[in-house]
Design goal:
Blueprint (H helix, E strand, L loop, with lengths): L1 H13 L4 E5 L5 E6 L6 E2 L7 E5 L8 E3 L3 E6 L21 H16 L5 E11 L4 H11 L4 E7 L3 E7 L2 E6 L2 E12 L10 H18 L3 E6 L3 E5 L2 E12 L3 H9 L7 E2 L1 H11 L10 E8 L9 E3 L9 E7 L3 E5 L2 E10 L5 H20 L2
Antiparallel strand pairs: 1-2, 1-8, 2-6, 3-5, 4-5, 4-16, 6-17, 7-15, 7-20, 8-9, 9-19, 10-11, 10-18, 11-14, 12-14, 13-14, 16-18, 19-20
Helix pairs in contact: 2-7
């Protein structure tokens, strides 16, 4: 029963012990990793095994939850749980002027040749009295095609999210990543319509990924670009795949993160612009998270299964990392919601503001659906 996993997670939270519960896109099985102590484990070179949680600023080390104990159970959405909800309106206008002025400043920098694209973000704070595991269950019920998670460490904090974007996946030497950028609202019964800004933005991300990994993989391949829906939004997506060379996982992660979809083009100048001008610390927003070098048979898919280090068997190792978009951090009774959007020379400041308002509804729908 799914209640067993929730009970176990509540116990970890009550005892201030690190854990993560998560479900991959379009799956029913929810996985969990429970750490037996409160030690803060840092990733050194991505040869470690466990669940990784990495910040936006790649100068700071990622955090690892070792798989001391795992539990997997199926989550079945109840018939009365619907994705078509009315979302309570939250006044965000206090941030409007600062954000639109920041967009204008970025456009001037682009016109002056400082960079081609930059991803600007902001954080809004709203009161939240709902228990964390209840929020997680609502995320599971609402966003079936996203990577849904609740992550907790007593020395770091508690984060939840529903992200549509994979950073990379490896199985043995096979590597898959994606270019996900360009946003337009979802309207029931209508196909998405893309303007030059959205198409250029996504092409920049695709070109960057290809140029970044082409010397690090063999047999590079690009899929057709498709429209994919994430909640109330459409995005453009291109998959990129190949076979890893001897350089290994750490070098590829270092080259890809942060991607142009969350930072900009080129990375160095846009990252410097963001750190100087966004006026807040992104922390783990637009970082990445997921399974790192997990043995393929660690999680069984036939109900509730526990495994410890003593009963693991050898199998091919899999890494599957997701970009931490559409997320919030719970700090006491305050939910800090993070949103952002890509800015190019064709951007219109007011439209960029409205895009972030639309993206905020992913987490607001979890907090305030009616």
């Amino acid at each position: 029963m799914f209640s067993e996993l929730i009970t176990r997670a509540v116990a970890q939270l009550d005892n201030e012990l690190p854990f993560v519960v998560y479900r991959k896109p379009n799956k029913t099985i929810v996985h969990s990793v429970f750490q037996k102590d409160a030690q803060l484990h840092l990733v050194d070179d991505f040869s470690e095994s466990g669940f990784v949680f990495a910040p936006f600023d790649s100068d700071n080390q990622a955090i690892l939850l070792p798989a001391h104990e795992v539990l997997s159970e199926a989550f079945i959405k109840k018939n009365n749980q619907s994705a078509n909800k009315t979302i309570k309106d939250v006044d965000q206008n206090v941030q409007h002027d600062f954000y639109t002025e920041l967009v204008k400043k970025a456009i001037v920098e682009i016109q002056n040749g400082a960079f081609k694209k930059v991803v600007l973000s902001r954080k809004l704070e709203v009161e939240c009295r709902t228990l964390p595991l209840m929020l997680f269950k609502k995320i599971l019920a609402t966003y079936e095609n996203a990577f849904c998670y609740l992550w907790y460490h007593p020395k770091v904090g508690l984060w939840l999210g529903a992200t549509p974007e994979i950073l990379l996946r490896t199985s043995g030497l096979r590597l898959t990543t994606m270019s996900l950028a360009g946003t337009t609202p979802y309207v029931a019964g209508e196909i998405p319509r893309w303007g030059n800004k959205e198409m250029e933005e996504q092409n920049m991300v695709t070109d960057y990924i290809v140029n970044t990994i082409k010397t690090r993989v063999d047999d590079l391949n690009l899929s057709e670009t498709k429209a994919v829906r994430a909640g109330n939004l459409w995005h453009r997506r291109t998959e990129v795949s190949g076979n890893l060379k001897k350089s290994g996982l750490s070098e590829v992660i270092g080259a890809l993160h942060p991607t142009p979809a969350v930072c900009g083009v080129p990375m160095a100048s846009t990252k410097a612009f963001l750190l100087e001008n966004e006026n807040y610390d992104r922390e783990f927003y637009t970082g990445f998270l997921g399974e790192l070098n997990i043995q393929e048979n660690l999680f069984e898919h036939n109900g509730a299964v526990r495994q410890t280090a003593a009963n693991k068997t050898e199998a091919e190792k899999v890494t599957e990392l997701f970009v931490n978009l559409r997320c919030l951090q719970l700090v006491n009774s305050i939910a800090q919601i993070y949103v952002g959007g890509g800015v190019t020379r064709d951007s219109v400041p007011e439209k960029e503001w409205q895009e972030t308002v639309g993206k905020s509804k992913t987490m607001l729908s979890v907090l305030f659906d009616q």
